[in-house]
Design brief:
Strand content: 35-45%
Helix content: under 10%
Radius of gyration: 16 Å
Number of helices: 1
Number of domains: 1
Number of strands: 10
Order of helices and strands: HEEEEEEEEEE
Distance between the termini: 20 Å
Amino acid sequence: MAFTSQETPRRQLDALKQVTMAFPIISNTSNSNIIDLECAKTFNSLEQVNFVAFTQSANANSGNAAAVNVIMQHSADTNSANFANVPGMALTSIASNSALYPVTNVVFAVPPDSLLRYVRIQVAQAAGGSNTANAANITFGLAF
């Protein structure tokens, strides 16, 4: 028999373990601020750990005419050069629709003992549209 917490989805974010960033402009990549999981080595857990990234709906403009790709990364330290994609995580693509980004939730379900201390998301906007800043933000956080 599984515990209730293992059977129900986690959709609430820990207010102290979340970050918000703007989408990058066309053909650029941005990294979110780092979330410190406060564990010296691997994040020890007996069940999967969920992280959620969600976007707000963005007004249509020429800067929103390209897909946005999101991947979760981790590192044992805060040096940006040491961050790598979390093993087993797939790239998630958020497509624009008539230069409008829809509200989107991305759940990163991470197996136990596979995370290092620091996590972030990397967001890359594909080529297309114009090279103007768009109006969309993405929030990333630890879910419980």
